[in-house]
Amino acid sequence: MIVIAHVSDVHIDGEQRSQDRTRAVLRYLEELPYDLAAVLVTGDIADHGTPDEYAVARELLTSRHPLLVCPGNHDDRAAFRKGLLTEETTARPDAPVNQVLRGEGFVIALCDSSVPGEHQGLLEDETLEWLDGVLAATLQEVPVLVAFHHPPVPLHTPYVDGIRQFGEERLAELADRHPHLTAFLAGHAHTAAATTFAGRPLLVAPGVVSALRLPWENPTDHPHVHLGLPPALAFHVLGEDGRLTTHYRTVTV
């Protein structure tokens, strides 16, 4: 049984609240009596993309489990690289931050869907070519989970659906060529959600720093952002039969 913890949208902003909520989630994972295959954090690590925010995030986002982090629309690629990945120099600091984890019996391809200077998402041609290579290099019997920040479909959250991932038809065409692409994982929406994209599950982690009210939950005189709910995360479980199951959990701060 392969268990992957999925965390998203910690939005470290210099305030104690975001730090406390992030610390509580990572502490919960650290105290589990089971070794996880991976901890995945799908973007919006820093709220303003500043070096100081990444310095705090680097202290908080530590784990005894393998941990992978990708940028979101609030992140800055160059500062993200230096602050979280400790890449002091690179020829292209603003290039997409794409990473792969090859575990025992699974692969996670973590794609950068951020667009520098924009809030909407897009997988650049460079990222799609990289992902195509990761999938082609992986044995057909090994499931590949493809993760990014922006969901490539609307999720009934008007606050973020207008800045979701666009150009998604290119990703769908790529998925059609690789049947062992098992599922897509995303963040950004600040709501636990499960839907489909390109004939695969699309599983969205809830937000750590806040939740979003859905249209039928939101009185007109209230903000979309809900600060009163506890932080939450997802557990994605790959069984020996290849079936993927997702469980969602809240965490006490």
- Please state how the strands of the largest beta sheet are arranged side by side: 4-5-7-9-11-10
**Helical fraction:** 10-25%
Unreliable spans are: none
Mean pLDDT, all residues: 95
Secondary structure tally: strands: 15
Q: Radius of gyration, rounded?
A: 17 Å
| Helix and strand element order | EHEHEHEEEHEHEHEEEEEEE
Largest sheet: 6 strands, mixed
Shape: globular
Terminal Cα span: 29 Å
Helix-strand makeup class? alpha/beta
Number of helices: 6
Proportion of residues in β-strands: 25-35%
Structure overview:
- InterPro entries: Calcineurin-like_PHP, CNP_phosphodiesterase-III, Metallo-depent_PP-like.
- Pfam families: Metallophos (PF00149).
- This is Metallophosphoesterase.
- Belongs to the cyclic nucleotide phosphodiesterase class-III family.
- The chain has six helices and 15 strands.
- The strands form four sheets. A six-stranded mixed sheet has the order 4-5-7-9-11-10, covered by helices on one side.
- It is globular and about 50 Å long.
- Helix content is 23%, strand content 26%.
- The chain is an alpha/beta fold and 253 residues long.
Write the layout of secondary structure elements.
Blueprint: E1 2-7, H1 16-30, E2 38-42, H2 51-60, E3 67-70, H3 77-84, E4 99-103, E5 106-110, E6 121-122, H4 125-136, E7 144-147, H5 158-161, E8 165-166, H6 168-176, E9 181-186, E10 193-197, E11 200-204, E12 211-212, E13 225-226, E14 232-238, E15 244-250
Parallel strand pairs: 1-2, 2-3, 5-7, 6-8, 7-9, 9-11
Antiparallel strand pairs: 1-14, 4-5, 10-11, 12-13, 14-15
Helix pairs in contact: 2-3
